[in-house]
Hints:
Blueprint: E1 3-5, H1 8-21, E2 30-35, E3 39-41, E4 44-46, E5 48-52, H2 55-58, E6 65-70, H3 71-76, H4 79-91, E7 93-95, E8 97-99, E9 101-104, E10 107-110, E11 120-124, E12 134-136, H5 145-151, H6 153-159, H7 168-179, E13 187-189
Parallel strand pairs: 2-6
Antiparallel strand pairs: 1-2, 3-4, 5-6, 5-13, 7-12, 8-11, 9-10
Helix pairs in contact: 1-4, 5-6
Bound molecules: zinc ion.
Amino acid sequence: MGFWLAGTEIKMMIEKMKQENHPHLAEARIAALLTDKRKISGNKIVLGTAKKVSAEDKVLSDFDFKIILSGEDWAQLTEKEKFALIDHELSHLDVARVPQTETVGGRKKPVKDEFGRTIYTDEIKYDDDGKPKWKLRSHDFENFFHIAERYGIEIASKVGGYFPPDGEKNQARAAAQAAEPAEADEESSE
Ligand SMILES: [Zn+2]
């Protein structure tokens, strides 16, 4: 199984997508690799994987995240699909944010929404070196194609446990989701 560094095309796509859709990743150092071994996970073909570089590996490299793409599949994608894949992988990369707190009986407690999910502020968490604390974010929803076909993406998302975009509930949910993969040092998301 071989890996090689992505060329200018991919690097430029990452920069463009970062600027357009992921401004919170401005300071993130993202390595892009290609592999000749396509990964199969269950019944899914994995075109890309996003990983957070562990504290241990950070000593050896200068990166915060790694994006690994299937070289064979990449070559077959249209321009639009390539951007979508990069955009998708960048969506797995996130910064940790400070939870909203309230003082109850002289003690600070995180604020929960009506469903018991932690609500986060826009404030970014920083490490001791003053760098943003990075984390991975899981998918917003998983679903069945046939349900999406029969009822549309909004209803399919809702009954799949995901509140459609723009709702207040969705924001709290998205924040809670983003916070879920706790402080594990090395993680990956497909
Ligand atoms: Zn994914």
